[in-house]
Specification:
About 60% of the residues lie in helices and about 0% in strands. With about 210 residues, it is mostly helical.
Protein backbone atom coordinates (compact mmCIF):
# COMPACT_ATOMS: atom_id res chain seq x y z
CA UNK A 1 0.00 0.00 0.00
CA UNK A 2 1.39 3.41 -1.00
CA UNK A 3 1.43 5.72 2.00
CA UNK A 4 0.20 9.32 1.93
CA UNK A 5 2.81 11.00 4.13
CA UNK A 6 0.89 14.30 4.29
CA UNK A 7 -2.18 12.48 5.60
CA UNK A 8 -0.06 10.57 8.13
CA UNK A 9 1.45 13.81 9.46
CA UNK A 10 -1.97 15.44 9.63
CA UNK A 11 -3.33 12.51 11.67
CA UNK A 12 -0.29 12.48 13.96
CA UNK A 13 -0.87 16.19 14.64
CA UNK A 14 -4.54 15.50 15.35
CA UNK A 15 -3.56 12.91 17.96
CA UNK A 16 -0.57 14.62 19.56
CA UNK A 17 -0.76 18.33 18.80
CA UNK A 18 2.26 20.32 17.74
CA UNK A 19 5.58 18.45 17.37
CA UNK A 20 7.57 18.82 20.58
CA UNK A 21 10.41 17.42 22.62
CA UNK A 22 9.32 16.70 26.20
CA UNK A 23 12.75 17.35 27.68
CA UNK A 24 13.21 20.84 29.12
CA UNK A 25 16.28 22.77 27.89
CA UNK A 26 17.30 26.22 26.70
CA UNK A 27 20.50 25.49 24.77
CA UNK A 28 22.56 22.73 23.16
CA UNK A 29 24.61 22.02 26.30
CA UNK A 30 21.47 21.43 28.37
CA UNK A 31 19.86 19.28 25.70
CA UNK A 32 23.01 17.16 25.36
CA UNK A 33 23.09 16.51 29.10
CA UNK A 34 19.32 15.87 29.30
CA UNK A 35 19.61 13.40 26.43
CA UNK A 36 22.26 11.40 28.28
CA UNK A 37 20.14 11.40 31.45
CA UNK A 38 17.01 10.30 29.55
CA UNK A 39 18.41 6.83 28.79
CA UNK A 40 16.11 4.32 30.53
CA UNK A 41 14.40 7.14 32.39
CA UNK A 42 11.21 9.12 31.78
CA UNK A 43 11.44 12.66 30.47
CA UNK A 44 9.30 13.75 33.40
CA UNK A 45 11.86 12.54 35.92
CA UNK A 46 14.76 13.98 33.93
CA UNK A 47 13.03 17.37 33.92
CA UNK A 48 12.66 17.26 37.70
CA UNK A 49 16.40 16.60 38.06
CA UNK A 50 17.55 19.14 35.47
CA UNK A 51 15.49 21.93 37.02
CA UNK A 52 18.19 22.28 39.69
CA UNK A 53 21.02 20.73 37.69
CA UNK A 54 20.95 23.38 34.97
CA UNK A 55 21.11 26.15 37.55
CA UNK A 56 24.23 24.59 39.04
CA UNK A 57 26.02 23.63 35.82
CA UNK A 58 26.04 26.12 32.95
CA UNK A 59 28.90 24.92 30.74
CA UNK A 60 30.72 21.71 29.86
CA UNK A 61 33.61 23.04 31.96
CA UNK A 62 31.30 22.97 34.99
CA UNK A 63 30.49 19.29 34.40
CA UNK A 64 34.12 18.43 33.81
CA UNK A 65 35.43 20.19 36.92
CA UNK A 66 32.95 18.90 39.49
CA UNK A 67 33.97 15.77 41.45
CA UNK A 68 32.39 12.64 39.95
CA UNK A 69 30.75 11.73 43.26
CA UNK A 70 29.00 15.10 43.45
CA UNK A 71 27.67 14.86 39.90
CA UNK A 72 26.52 11.29 40.55
CA UNK A 73 24.54 12.48 43.55
CA UNK A 74 22.99 15.33 41.57
CA UNK A 75 21.68 12.98 38.87
CA UNK A 76 20.99 9.91 41.02
CA UNK A 77 17.17 9.93 40.54
CA UNK A 78 17.59 9.31 36.79
CA UNK A 79 19.08 5.86 37.45
CA UNK A 80 22.38 4.37 36.26
CA UNK A 81 23.85 7.58 37.67
CA UNK A 82 27.46 6.38 37.84
CA UNK A 83 27.54 5.49 34.14
CA UNK A 84 25.64 8.64 33.20
CA UNK A 85 27.96 10.88 35.21
CA UNK A 86 30.95 9.26 33.53
CA UNK A 87 29.36 9.70 30.11
CA UNK A 88 28.54 13.37 30.73
CA UNK A 89 32.12 14.02 31.86
CA UNK A 90 33.62 12.20 28.87
CA UNK A 91 31.38 14.08 26.43
CA UNK A 92 32.21 17.37 28.16
CA UNK A 93 35.94 16.70 27.91
CA UNK A 94 35.82 15.76 24.23
CA UNK A 95 33.69 18.77 23.29
CA UNK A 96 36.01 21.09 25.21
CA UNK A 97 39.11 19.59 23.59
CA UNK A 98 37.77 19.34 20.04
CA UNK A 99 35.21 22.14 19.80
CA UNK A 100 36.18 24.69 22.48
CA UNK A 101 33.20 23.72 24.63
CA UNK A 102 30.59 24.35 21.92
CA UNK A 103 28.25 21.64 20.65
CA UNK A 104 28.90 21.37 16.88
CA UNK A 105 25.96 22.44 14.73
CA UNK A 106 26.72 19.73 12.16
CA UNK A 107 25.09 16.34 12.73
CA UNK A 108 27.83 14.26 11.10
CA UNK A 109 30.53 16.03 13.12
CA UNK A 110 28.70 15.82 16.45
CA UNK A 111 27.95 12.13 15.90
CA UNK A 112 31.69 11.42 16.10
CA UNK A 113 31.75 12.42 19.77
CA UNK A 114 32.03 9.26 21.86
CA UNK A 115 28.86 8.68 23.86
CA UNK A 116 26.67 10.72 21.51
CA UNK A 117 25.99 8.63 18.41
CA UNK A 118 23.88 9.51 15.41
CA UNK A 119 20.45 9.37 17.06
CA UNK A 120 21.42 11.83 19.78
CA UNK A 121 23.35 14.02 17.34
CA UNK A 122 20.27 14.30 15.11
CA UNK A 123 18.08 15.16 18.07
CA UNK A 124 20.40 17.71 19.70
CA UNK A 125 21.48 19.49 16.52
CA UNK A 126 17.98 19.31 15.05
CA UNK A 127 16.31 20.84 18.09
CA UNK A 128 18.98 23.14 19.52
CA UNK A 129 20.07 24.58 16.16
CA UNK A 130 16.93 24.11 14.09
CA UNK A 131 18.68 21.91 11.52
CA UNK A 132 16.62 19.34 9.55
CA UNK A 133 17.11 16.01 11.31
CA UNK A 134 15.63 12.50 11.28
CA UNK A 135 15.71 11.25 14.89
CA UNK A 136 15.77 7.45 14.80
CA UNK A 137 15.13 6.19 18.31
CA UNK A 138 13.31 3.00 19.36
CA UNK A 139 9.91 4.67 18.81
CA UNK A 140 10.82 5.72 15.26
CA UNK A 141 12.10 2.22 14.46
CA UNK A 142 8.92 0.59 15.78
CA UNK A 143 6.31 3.03 14.44
CA UNK A 144 7.69 3.46 10.91
CA UNK A 145 8.08 -0.29 10.63
CA UNK A 146 4.56 -0.99 11.83
CA UNK A 147 3.00 1.60 9.53
CA UNK A 148 5.01 0.26 6.61
CA UNK A 149 7.08 3.33 5.79
CA UNK A 150 10.30 1.30 5.76
CA UNK A 151 11.47 -2.29 5.55
CA UNK A 152 14.69 -1.47 7.36
CA UNK A 153 15.27 -2.19 11.03
CA UNK A 154 18.64 -0.45 11.30
CA UNK A 155 18.73 3.28 12.16
CA UNK A 156 20.81 4.25 9.11
CA UNK A 157 18.45 2.50 6.70
CA UNK A 158 15.39 4.04 8.35
CA UNK A 159 16.96 7.51 8.27
CA UNK A 160 17.69 7.09 4.55
CA UNK A 161 14.15 5.91 3.80
CA UNK A 162 12.53 8.77 5.74
CA UNK A 163 14.67 11.30 3.87
CA UNK A 164 13.33 9.90 0.59
CA UNK A 165 9.67 10.38 1.48
CA UNK A 166 9.82 13.58 3.55
CA UNK A 167 10.79 17.11 2.53
CA UNK A 168 13.68 18.45 4.62
CA UNK A 169 11.40 21.00 6.25
CA UNK A 170 9.43 18.17 7.89
CA UNK A 171 12.26 15.89 9.01
CA UNK A 172 12.44 17.09 12.61
CA UNK A 173 8.70 17.70 13.04
CA UNK A 174 7.83 14.25 11.71
CA UNK A 175 10.42 12.65 13.99
CA UNK A 176 9.01 14.35 17.09
CA UNK A 177 5.44 13.37 16.18
CA UNK A 178 6.42 9.74 15.62
CA UNK A 179 8.26 9.66 18.96
CA UNK A 180 5.16 11.00 20.72
CA UNK A 181 3.04 8.42 18.90
CA UNK A 182 5.32 5.60 19.96
CA UNK A 183 5.34 6.85 23.53
CA UNK A 184 1.60 7.31 24.00
CA UNK A 185 -0.29 5.16 21.47
CA UNK A 186 1.87 2.82 19.36
CA UNK A 187 3.51 1.28 22.42
CA UNK A 188 5.99 -1.56 22.19
CA UNK A 189 4.14 -4.27 24.11
CA UNK A 190 0.52 -3.26 23.65
CA UNK A 191 -0.23 -0.70 20.93
CA UNK A 192 -3.55 1.07 21.45
CA UNK A 193 -4.70 0.61 17.86
CA UNK A 194 -8.32 1.51 18.52
CA UNK A 195 -7.20 5.01 19.59
CA UNK A 196 -5.01 5.42 16.51
CA UNK A 197 -6.11 7.49 13.52
CA UNK A 198 -3.55 5.69 11.33
CA UNK A 199 -5.40 2.36 11.43
CA UNK A 200 -6.56 2.63 7.83
CA UNK A 201 -3.01 2.87 6.49
CA UNK A 202 -1.06 0.80 9.03
CA UNK A 203 0.40 -2.51 7.88
CA UNK A 204 0.55 -3.77 11.48
CA UNK A 205 -3.17 -3.14 12.13
CA UNK A 206 -4.24 -4.36 8.70
CA UNK A 207 -2.30 -7.57 9.15
CA UNK A 208 0.46 -6.88 6.71
CA UNK A 209 3.18 -7.07 9.36
Amino acid sequence: MKKNIDSIIEKLRAMHGEPRCELNYVNAVELAVATVLSAQCTDERVNKVTKDLFRKYRTFEDYLNVPAEELEEDIRPTGFYKNKAKSVKNIAQEIIERFHGMVPDDIDTFATVKGIGRKSANMIVGLAYGKPAIIVDTHMIRVTGRIGLTDHEDPEGIETDMKKILPQSLWTKFSLLVILHGRYICKAKKPECLKCLLRDCCDYYLGGK
